[in-house]
Design goal:
Length: 400
C-alpha cells in the first residue's frame, strides 16, 4: 500500500484555469477545461493511501465515523482469480480479506465500521464483523441500507420481477422485524440524512412517506413515473421528485411531504438523480444523456433553478453525486490528448463544487491512461472520500 503526500489545490500550475492532478498515472494526457468557474475558497486535501486489487472493483462503502472502507472485487477477466470482499481501515490496514463463492451484488457498512452487510448474487444477505467473521445470514435478494440511529437494516427490493415487498426490515442481529408489502413495482427509495424519514416511489406515480417507525405518514401522487426522489431532514420534511410523462417529458416537483405539492416545473435536460442538501433548502440534480453530463441546483421552496452546468461529452459510466453541508462531489468524463502519440483518450475527474457551482477542488485520480472513475463514497462528517477506478485501484482521500 502506497502512502501519498499532501496536495494543495492552489500549489500546482493551472491548466486552462483548472487542475487535474493525476499523481501516479502511467501516462497523463492533456486535460480539457471543466465547465466551472474556480472558487475563491480553494480546498486542500490529503491522499491518505492507495491500494491495487487483483481484480476490478464493483462496489464500495465508507463508514462515516470510523473511516473504514469495504470493497468488493471480481476476478480479472484475463488473469482470473476469486471474488473478494475486503475491509480496510482509515490508516490503510487490511482488517480482513475473504474469498466469496458468489459475487457481491450490493453492500453497506455501519458508521462505526463494526458490521458489514452484503447482498450476494445467490440471494443471501450476510453480516460480517470487523474481523470478517460471519455474524448471521438471511434470505435477502435485496439492497441493504444501514440505519444507524435505530440499528436497523432496510433491505430494498429494487429489481424484483414479481413485486411482493418494497423492503424487508432487519435488526442488527439478523432478525427480520417487518416487511412492506406492495402489488406494484417499487422504483426508488431514499432515507433522509437524519434517518427520520423514508420515501418510496411506486409505479403509477405513487409516493409514500414513512416515519422512523416505518409507519406510513402520507401518500402523494404525480402524473407519469418517478425517476428519482429525495427527502430532507427535520420534523417537516420536503420531498423532491423527478418524474417523466410521455407527453410532457421530465419534470421537477417539490412537496411539503406531509401536505402537498408546492411547485413543479419542466426540465430541459435529462436528469436521473436528485439529492437534497442537509439544510433542506436546496437540491442537486444530475443527469447523463446524449446531450452531455448535466448538474444543477434548485430551490426546495419553489423549485426555481439556481444554476446549471453542462459537460458536452456523454459519460460512458454515469455516477451518482454526493452532498455535504456546503459542497457537491461529482464525477465527470472528458476527452484529453495523450502526451506521446496525440491519440484522444477518455479522462475521468472527480470535482468538489460549492453551493454556487464553483470549483473548489479537482481531486487526483491515480489511474492508468483511459481508465475511468467507477464508484466513490463520501463521509461528510469525516470529510473522507473513497474512490474506486476501473483499473483495480482504490484510494482514500481526506478533504481539508
Amino acid at each position: 500500500m502506497k502512502k501519498a503526500n499532501q496536495l494543495t489545490l492552489g500549489a500546482v500550475p493551472l491548466l486552462l484555469g483548472f487542475l487535474f492532478a493525476c499523481g501516479g498515472c502511467s501516462s497523463a494526457p492533456d486535460k480539457p477545461t471543466l465547465p466551472f468557474e474556480r472558487s475563491e475558497q480553494k480546498m486542500e486535501f490529503d491522499s491518505l493511501w492507495e491500494e491495487e486489487f487483483p481484480g476490478p472493483i464493483t462496489d464500495l462503502a465508507l463508514a462515516k465515523k470510523s473511516g473504514d472502507l469495504v470493497v468488493a472485487t471480481i476476478p480479472d477477466p484475463d488473469a482470473g482469480g476469486k471474488h473478494l470482499l475486503t475491509l480496510i481501515s482509515k490508516a490503510g490496514k487490511k482488517l480482513f480479506q475473504m474469498k466469496s463463492p458468489f459475487p457481491v451484488k450490493s453492500l453497506d457498512i455501519t458508521d462505526d465500521g463494526t458490521r458489514v452487510i452484503v447482498n450476494n448474487y445467490d440471494g443471501k444477505l450476510i453480516a460480517f464483523d470487523r474481523e470478517g467473521k460471519s455474524l448471521w445470514e438471511a434470505e435477502g435478494g435485496c439492497k441493504p441500507t444501514v440505519v444507524n440511529a435505530t440499528k436497523r437494516i432496510v433491505c430494498f427490493h429494487d429489481d424484483d420481477t414479481k413485486p411482493s415487498f418494497a423492503f424487508d426490515l432487519y435488526d442488527f442481529d439478523g432478525k427480520r422485524i417487518s416487511r412492506f408489502t406492495t402489488r406494484v413495482d417499487v422504483l426508488a427509495m431514499k432515507i433522509s440524512d437524519d434517518e427520520k424519514w423514508l420515501a418510496l416511489a411506486f409505479a403509477g406515480g405513487r409516493i409514500t412517506l414513512l416515519n422512523d417507525q416505518y409507519k406510513v405518514e402520507k401518500e402523494q401522487k404525480i402524473t407519469g413515473e418517478v425517476l428519482d426522489l429525495g427527502i430532507s431532514n427535520g420534523e417537516n420534511p420536503r420531498l423532491v421528485v423527478i418524474s417523466i410523462d410521455n407527453k410532457k417529458g421530465e419534470s421537477l416537483s417539490v412537496f411539503d411531504a406531509r401536505k402537498g405539492v408546492l411547485a413543479s416545473l419542466p426540465l430541459s435536460y435529462h436528469v436521473e438523480q436528485v439529492e437534497i442538501f442537509p439544510s433542506g433548502k436546496l437540491a442537486t440534480l444530475y443527469g447523463n444523456s446524449p446531450r452531455g453530463q448535466y448538474i444543477a441546483v434548485h430551490s426546495v421552496n419553489d423549485a426555481t433553478l439556481q444554476w446549471q452546468k453542462l459537460e458536452p461529452r456523454y459519460a460512458d459510466y454515469s455516477l451518482a453525486v454526493r452532498l455535504g453541508e456546503d459542497r457537491i462531489l461529482a464525477g465527470f468524463e472528458q476527452i484529453g490528448t495523450g502526451p506521446k502519440n496525440g491519440v484522444k483518450s477518455r479522462v475521468s475527474r472527480l470535482v468538489v463544487l460549492d453551493l454556487d457551482g464553483k470549483l473548489k477542488a479537482d481531486l487526483p485520480l491515480k489511474t492508468a491512461e483511459g481508465a475511468y472513475l467507477y464508484s466513490f463514497a463520501y463521509s461528510p462528517s469525516r470529510s473522507l472520500v473513497g474512490v474506486g477506478t476501473d483499473d483495480k485501484r482504490l484510494q482514500l482521500l481526506e478533504l481539508k
